Each structure stands twice: as structure tokens, then as C-alpha cells.
Amino acid sequence: MFLSDTHLLGEIKGHWLDKLRREWQMERAFQTALLLQPDVVFILGDVFDEGKWSRSQAWADDVGRFQKMFRHPAETELVVIVGNHDIGFHYEMTTYKLKRFEKVFNFTSEMLVTRKGVNFVLVNSVALEGDGCTICSLAEAKLIELSHKLNCSQQEQKHSNRRCREMEQLPVSQPILLQHYPLYRRSDSECTGEDSAPPEEKTIPFKEKYDVLSQEASQKLIWWFHPRLILSGHTHSACEILHDGKILEVSVPSFSWRNRNNPSFIMGSITPTNFSLQKCFLPFESRVFTIYCAAGALLVVLLLAHFLMPSFYFAQRLISKHKAV
Ligand SMILES: [Zn+2]
After folding, report:
1. How far away, in angstroms, is 306 Cα from ligand 1 center?
2. How far is the CA of 175 from the centre of ligand 1 (A)?
3. How far apart are CA 264 and CA 282, in angstroms?
């Protein structure tokens, strides 16, 4: 199962009613979705809204709420990828914030998760600024090492070089990239579907390293990994795009009613050579409100009828008596 951008509200910008309602809805939606019994749930970043600036106590509160909302049976694995709201945009990102995030989610940036012969590469896309900052250099080095490992696993043992033979063998399967920022695309103008960006937003050009990865970083990821599929978040809207005419990237929309009227998640069935994805929509928030309002109005009518009817009958009886006299 893939979902993204849950944006659990923080103590500074979050209103208690908004928090109560939207988080209750996400909890119910997630707990219901677990009935589909996914093997692994991947959350593609921006789990928290204020992880980028929250102090220790606020962070602990947010984490506690997350663990309650996204509780899951032991046989379901939960893997969380880092987003800019969790640790800040590149210039706000610090080792402290990154470590704090990794400690909670048992996630190390730039790591490989192999399940049932399928290789998932978890990318900290905030660290792909390409400016040589300490976190960025470390991230790039780890990604290059991972790409070597994956490339070695594609070679036949007898043809492989000594370096490859010394490496741990991975399943022979082209990897799937999971990250928060999408790879570079000019805008969302080519995205279609009922949950793609609204028409007035689609033509707004994306800013590199802010809305999407830079062209350079995107090209590097494709060169290093030759992925067969990329799943990303961040834009809060849906999009399917082909890179180099063959690599599918799916932008997973936000899971929160706060960011869209029709949130969704994706169920994937993935084998080492093939995959199939299916989107599952949550209810429209506007429809749920309409139902609440209609139910409220009906309740008022029933209450009025209940309290006013006896006096109506009393008045009617009085009149009929008067007439009789
Ligand atoms: Zn984001």
C-alpha cells in the first residue's frame, strides 16, 4: 500500500478542530484500508506538517498521535520515507532533524528494502540538492554504492568482476524508487484524471529543488538505478508520467482531507518482473458534510415536531370545545 502527505498538524499552525476531524478521518480510513491486508505500507513523506520546526515536546506529541493513528498488525510492515515537512527544505534540514526522524521510523536515508524478491530504493529526496552539503554528499555516496550493488546483481556470476563477487547478492530485479519529491517535470499540464491538479494550477511551472527534483538529480537517479517504477508524493495531486518514454512515475496524492476533497491511496501488486497498481478513493469530504447537514436539518425538524405537536393538538382541542359551547 502506498500513501503520502498525511501532514499531521502541529501545535503552531494546527487548529484543534481541524486536527480532531481530519486526523480522526485518516485514522478510520487507514484502519479500514488495513482490511485489504497489505504486506508493506509505504508512506511517501510529509508525515508531519511541522516536523521541520517542532520542538522536542511537540515532536513527541505528533509522533505519539501518528503511532496511534497508523497502528497496524505485526505482520504488516510500515516504511516511512522522509519529506520536506518532516525535516525541512534543504536549507532548514539538519543532521539533528534527520536523525530524530530516522530514530522514530527506523529508516536510514538511501536504503534498500527487499521484500519477496522486489527491490525498493528509499530516497531522501530533500538531500539531492547537489550542492555538496554534508548530508547531500553522504546521501549521494550511499546511493552510488546501492546502485553498484544492484547493478552487480544484474550481472551473471561468471561474468562479474571481483568487486561484484565480493558484494552481497540481491534479487535480480530492476528496482522501484520511492521518494517524496517527484522527478523533474515542467508542470502538471500533462497530468490527467479526476484527482490531478485543478486546471488553473496545472500550467504553473514547477520550481526545481522546491516542487520537483532538479533536472540533474532526476537524471542521476535514472542513470544510477534504471528503475522500472517511481512513486513520489509532495504535489498532493495525482499524475502519471513517463520518463525517457519508458519509466513510469506515479505521483501519489495526499491522504488527508486537509489537502484535497478526494484523498486516495494506491494498492500495488508487485512481482520481481511486473507490477499492477490500483487507486482506492476515500469519501469526498464535501459529500460527508452534505450528509451531516441533511441529517442535522432532519433532526431539527423532528425535534420541532416533537415539541410543537402537543401544543398544536391542545390548541385544536380548545377551539373545538369553544365551538361546542
Ligand atoms: Zn512535501
Report:
1. 52
2. 23
3. 5
Q: What is the pTM of this model?
A: 0.89
CA-wise closest residue to 70 among 285, 287, 279, 265: 265
Predicted confidence (pLDDT) per residue in 154-201, tens digit: 876 666 677 787 777 888 899 999 999 999 999 999 999 889 999 999
- Joined grid coordinates for residue 234: 509532495
Task: Report how far ligand 1's centroid is from the alpha carbon of 116 (Å).
Answer: 29
Task: Output the furthest CA–CA distance in the chain (Å, rounded).
Answer: 116
Please give the share of the chain, as a percent, with pLDDT higher than 90.
Answer: 72
Q: For residue 60, is it within any domain?
A: yes
Structural domain contains residue 317: no
CATH number of the CATH domain containing 186: 3.60.21.10
Please give the tally of structural domains in the chain. 1
Burial class of residue 218 in the structure, from the number of CB atoms within 10 Å of its CB (0-12 exposed, 13-18 middle, 19+ buried): buried
Would you tell me how many other CB atoms lie within 10 Å of the CB of residue 277? 16
For residue 181, how far is its CA from the centre of ligand 1 (angstroms)? 7
Q: Specify if 294 maps to a domain.
A: no
All residues at 6 or more sequence positions from 5 whose CB lies less than 8 Å from its CB, including other chains: 44, 45, 46, 83, 233, 234, 236, 252, 253, 254, 255, 256, 259
